[in-house]
Amino acid sequence: MLKRLNSYDDLITMRQSGDKKIKQDKVKVSICMTGCRALGAQEVYEEFSKQIKKQKLQDKVEVIETGCQGLCARAPVMTIDPPDAPSIFYGRVTVDIVPDVISSTILKGEVIKKLCYAEAGKKIPYMKDIPFYSRQNKIVLRNCGIIDPNSIEQYIERKGYDAFAKALFEFDPERIISEITHSGIRGRGGAGFPTGLKWGFCRKAKGDTKYLICNADEGDPGAFMDRAILEGDPHAVIEGMLIAARAIGSGKGFVYVRAEYPIAVNHLRNAIAQAKKLNLLGNNILGSGFNFDLEIKMGAGAFVCGEETALIASIEGKRGMPRPRPPFPANSGLWSKPTNINNVETLANIPVIIAEGADWYKQLGTKNGAGTKIFALAGKVKNTGLVEVPMGTTLREIVFDIGGGVPGRSGFKAAQMGGPSGGCVPEEHLDLPIDYESVKAVGAIMGSGGLIVMDHDTSMVDISRYFMEFVQEESCGKCVPCRVGTRKMLDILTRITKGDGCRSDIEDLKEMAYVTQTASLCGLGQTAPNPVLSTIRYFINEYEALIK
Amino acid sequence: MEDKPIDLTPVAGIVSAYVHDYESNLIAILQQTQDEYGYLPKSVMKEITKLTDVPLTRIFGVVTFYSQFTLTPRGKHAIKICNGTACHVRGVDEVKEKVKEHLSVTEGETTADFQFTLETVACIGTCFLAPVMMVDDRYFGKLTTDSVTDIVKEYSN
After folding, report:
1. DSSP assignment of A31-82, as one string?
2. Domains delineated in chain A
3. Has this prediction a pTM greater than 0.90?
């Protein structure tokens, strides 16, 4: 039963009573129930619950559903936490294996080798010894895969909403903004704008009604970190929004989420309802006099709605088309009121910064990029999944040390970073420490963090054509440079991939890329030529080979 | 786009939840209406206009902008093939061709018996399963031309 919390003390009391629950002498069995569902996690979870009940082990074992545990390549995955021993990680779990896991691992502490992660022929049973996990630094994904995302109690047990309470009772809005500014965090959605500065603009904007929007319209093909956060730890996003709302002086927030993410919407809806019951959303939150209400708005399938002004138009119930800026949303946004928009991952960082302090946060990462970044590792790589590392980690560490390298004999050719707005980073830059500026310097962008590994069997001209086809389809058609430019570039690229290219094509592509970049209205068009330009920069021989 | 007689009574129930602000909630109204009817028939859109005073031109503008909305009836099962980067690199095109061959339709079309509608989506965020597709709300990953054949057959019965 969720009881209304009327003060900071009530929240602390709730957490402390929770502490007792955690100390109980139980084996915790955590099963990923988000992405892993696609490969039968639901059935495995049900079988575990059934068996535990049948064997009357409820006092010894607790089975919970969690969000993404990261190593998606081994799906369906689970973690077993005995009270006094290290966590055991199992992958490719099936219903048939459940009785064995209970009798051997859970009751006797014996490891089942065939379910363990293997590297270079060696089985590694404990999570702490698996390079995929040991080399990561999970700040944003701190709860993801560990708690039940549908349980606000478990979130609070792990100090959830404590940072918000601190921001609410101990900080004034200016202090929150200065802390966030000082931390050096920049937007994780792609553009990398300093978050503290953005909040400051909105706080200073004139008007009594201000809106806060969480951009969960994760549209870049190949990026799935926002989905994982919303599915695995939705309260972290709500807490980040509460802190942001207090900082800018907003009483009403929206989460704009893709309709393609039904589990995320479901978990978020449940989390909002729980927070309302506990008096963490609504009026007079924790007895402080602060009001903040949160509503979910569903997208309807339009990539351009990730752009701020298009997103605003969509929430207003219109066609999601961007408009020229200024005025910036901070001054005139949703229903012409001052509006602040942050991405999911950015917001999930906020509670940590407030809890641990800006100085602590700053020392993670590089001068140009504080903190960590989550990458969605996919394509031709062994350990596909979600990876969170400090900024400044090299591409080689991500792809080879954590990702386990490229399967097969073909070998690493390039990593595509930043989706349709980004570019390909070739082998010669594998040792580049990744942050906003360094990635830009080599012709890609950090973007939202999609990282697709390509081997020598992948045609770079085809990849370039693929992204152009994507942006051409998603171009809203409002401005000519984007509408026509993407179409023309796609025509040329299609011609080249079919072997009908002509000598002038590469120069024509470059020229059209320049016009589209400089004359388009919004980020979609301005960045659309990036994949073309970066593949021409590093792989011109592939273009020439097709044209000859 | 001529519609057969359609029962319009559910529309009033859907719009009634948004009486405080029809305009801003137009997308939600249309989503729920499409859930109810499976698509957005002309007469239903006219009914929304009648009840909410939101002009039909504006409704039509929104419906044609967002890829989620459809003006034609759909099949019983929606097959969504992911066209994301990881799926592309992992060879989703072959899988897609196989599905098209089995159903004798192309992207955006519905089979003559209204069993299936075939769509492609930009990315469904399960890149580790690439190539991947969804049939209704179920995910199918690591597809091969053989495995899609089995899946399509399973849903055909």
Report:
1. EE-SGGGGGTHHHHHHHHHHHHHHTT-TTTEEEEEES--S-GGG-S-EEEE-
2. 25-130 (3.40.30.10), 159-361 (3.40.50.11540), 372-455 (3.10.20.600), 460-547 (1.20.1440.230)
3. yes
Question: Which of these, A344, A383, A296, A436, lies nearest to A140 by C-alpha position?
Answer: A344
In terms of Cβ atoms closer than 10 Å to its own Cβ (0-12, 13-18, 19+), residue A270 is middle
Residue pair A155/A310 in contact by the 8 Å Cβ criterion: no
pLDDT digits (tens, 9 = 90+) for A49-91: 999 999 999 999 999 999 999 999 999 999 999 988 899 999 9
Question: Which chain A residue shows the shortest CA-CA distance from B27?
Answer: A317
CB A420 within 8 A of CB A441: no
Q: What homologous superfamily does CATH list for B77-156?
A: Glutaredoxin (3.40.30.10)
Range(s) for CATH 3.40.30.10 in chain B?
A: 77-156
Q: What is the pLDDT of residues A174-233, one digit of tens each?
A: 999 999 999 999 999 988 999 999 999 999 999 999 999 999 999 888 889 999 999 999
Q: Tell me what the mean pLDDT of segment A399-406 comes to.
A: 96
* CA dihedral sign of residues A20, A147, A247, A313: negative
Closest CA to B124 of A263, A383, A448, A446: A263
How far apart CA A501 and CA A508 sit, in angstroms, is 11
d(CA A52, CA A99): 10
How many A×B Cβ pairs under 8 Å?
126
Token digits for A267?
């978990």
Segment B63-80, tens digit of pLDDT: 999 999 999 999 999 999
The strands making up A423-426's β-sheet, listed across from edge to edge, are: A385-390, A372-379, A450-455, A412-417, A423-426
* B61 in contact with chain A, both atoms CB, cutoff 8 A: yes
Inspect the interface and report whether the beta carbons of A35 and B130 lie closer than 8 Å: no
* ipTM score assigned to the predicted complex: 0.91
Say yes or no to pLDDT of A19 above 60: no
For residues B142 and A39, give the distance between their C-alpha atoms in angstroms, rounded to a whole number: 10
**CA of B9 vs chain A CAs: smallest distance (Å):** 23
Q: What is the mean pLDDT of chain A?
A: 95
Q: Please judge whether A297 and B28 are an interchain contact, meaning their C-beta atoms are less than 8 angstroms apart.
A: yes
Distance, in Å, from the CA atom of B134 to the CA atom of B79, rounded to the nearest integer, reads 6
Lowest mean pLDDT among A10-19, A91-100, A361-370: A10-19
Q: Cβ contacts of residue A158 below 8 Å, gap of 6+?
A: A142, A143, A146, A147
Chain A, nearest residue to B64 by Cα? A319
Tell me whether B120 touches chain A (CB under 8 Å).
no
pLDDT band, very low/low/confident/very high, at A22 (cuts 50, 70, 90): low
What's the rounded Cα separation, in Å, for the pair A305 and A298? Answer: 11
Question: If you average pLDDT over residues A25-36, what whole number do you get?
Answer: 91
Å from B67 to nearest chain A CA? Answer: 5
Radius of gyration for chain B, computed over Cα atoms and rounded to the nearest angstrom: 18
Residue A24 CA, distance from chain mean position? 33
Angle (CA) A368-A371-A374 rounded to 5° is 105
Chain-centroid distance, C-alpha A297: 19
